[in-house]
Specification:
- The chain has about 210 residues and is of the alpha+beta class.
- The chain has a domain at about 5-140.
- Helices cover about 20% and strands about 35% of the residues.
- The longest helix is centred in the middle third of the chain and has 14 residues, at about 95-110.
- It is globular, with a radius of gyration of 16 Å.
């Protein structure tokens, strides 16, 4: 993984007993459940999520070295980055509220700064995350942690680049996040488990 802070799912998932905190318009504006998605739209199928292609969008799959499994999807768009992970969640409760507490504690323990605020996607965290520069000196980068609770799933995103401070860029990356479709599937999964991701099928293959 390229950045252990946003991609370490063990550190940022939460207990099941959390009040659901979905955005009120999620079912109509996204992110969408598979049952809510337009079936004729040309999504890129990555298993646990589907991404709607758009001009200027670059997609990266982040792989855990030891297990070789895909643990996150990275999207570069509108001078911003968006890293997303889908998790299984309880049927009647959400994960985002307690997840925010864990992210906040983790960043502060690393010497970073974080504040909670209300954004277009609901409650989010704006953080200064400690990073090491190429020359070994310490620095910080801005990151927005966003999350939405859906039916039996939780979608988590980390926004970097222009989308952390520029209004127009933020609107574009938020629209990208809202366009994502989560495919929970019917297989029983413990809450907080990462919904499996996979390489997209190449043309002419199943």
């Amino acid at each position: 993984m390229t950045d252990s802070t946003p991609t370490d799912s063990a550190d940022v998932t939460a207990d099941a007993g959390t009040t659901r905190a979905a955005t009120l318009d999620r079912a109509t504006d996204g992110p969408f459940d598979e049952s809510e998605a337009n079936p004729v739209r040309p999504y890129i199928d990555l298993g646990g999520i589907k991404i709607l292609p758009r001009e200027g969008l670059n997609l990266r799959l982040e792989v855990e070295e030891q297990t070789k499994r895909i643990v996150a999807v990275g999207l570069d768009y509108a001078d911003s980055t968006l890293q997303v992970q889908p998790f299984a969640a309880p049927r009647t409760t959400g994960l985002w509220a307690e997840t925010r507490d864990q992210i906040r504690e983790q960043i502060r323990s690393q010497g970073g700064r974080v504040e909670e605020r209300e954004g277009p996607l609901g409650s989010e965290l704006l953080a200064e995350v400690p990073v090491a520069a190429a020359d070994g000196t310490a620095g910080k980068r801005l990151a927005r942690f966003v999350g939405v609770d859906g039916p039996r799933w939780f979608l988590r995103g980390v926004i970097g680049g222009a989308g952390t401070s520029d209004v127009d860029a933020a609107a574009k990356i938020e629209d990208l996040f809202r366009s994502i479709v989560v495919v929970r599937g019917g297989t029983p999964m413990p809450p907080r488990d990462l919904i499996p991701l996979r390489m997209p099928a190449t043309p002419g293959t199943a």
